[in-house]
Amino acid sequence: MSPTTEKNVKIAVRGLKKSFGANEVLKGIDVDIAEGEVVCVIGPSGSGKSTFLRCLNKLEDITAGSVTVNGFDLTEPKVDLNAVRQNIGMVFQHFNLFPHMSVIQNIMLAPVELKKKDKPGAREQAMELLRRVGLAEKADARPASLSGGQKQRVAIARALAMNPGIMLFDEATSALDPEMVGEVLQVIRDLAAEGMTMVVVTHEMGFAREVADRVIFMDGGVICEQGRPEDVFGNPQQPRLQDFLAKVL
Ligand code: ADP
Ligand code: MG
What we know:
Elements: E1 9-20, E2 23-34, E3 38-42, H1 49-55, E4 64-69, E5 72-73, H2 81-86, E6 88-91, H3 103-113, H4 119-132, H5 148-160, E7 166-170, H6 178-193, E8 197-201, H7 205-211, E9 214-219, E10 222-227, H8 229-234, H9 239-248
The structure holds adenosine-5'-diphosphate and magnesium ion.
Residues 20, 23, 25, 43, 45-51 line the site of adenosine-5'-diphosphate (ADP).
């Protein structure tokens, strides 16, 4: 657990491999993600995007290689995974809000239970987060009464309540009706503008092109191509990326 000396690197992935049984899903990933960088990950279904993201906070056991986050090597047996995970917010395709709690209770839960934050302080911070995602008036509503886009914005606010230094998004807009995609992307866009370090798996190519500092194209468990969005989308080199873009653009 030695802090990294490269102060700018938030996430360092080296030779990452992940197998499920005989199925090698990640075949050796090497990537550094810098503080404040917004990395969008694109690629066909089944290419290992979600598995890669889940390895970044060790929701998956790592078969080989290493993942270092904020200087902590997640593959070291003694690493404090809870401490590492508290600094990484994750938002999934499905919102997983607690249905029996109000919106604000959903957001206050982790700071109160995990960080032992006092309730008035947690409530104040939760209200501030709800204002940020444009949902202050929904504080006392139940999740069931919200639209999909509103639920996903609450899920983002809930992740931000732990004050993470890194946010991971796994197809956060894929389950939404089209008219709700924009409001969720706007929240992610605002986070990017505020300098949040983010890894965003997305099917929204326009969004990736606009917001990403770097786009990573995964195919078959490897990073097939990566670069600035204008290069990846405007001048793709690998035939597999050219084929993929021809299908999705
Ligand atoms: P993507 O997010 O790019 O669609 P995934 O990372 O979800 O890809 O999946 C990559 C491959 O890993 C798929 O073949 C999938 O079936 C397999 N896989 C993912 N999770 C598991 C799991 N928990 N058990 C077994 N196989 C899995
Ligand atoms: Mg996926």
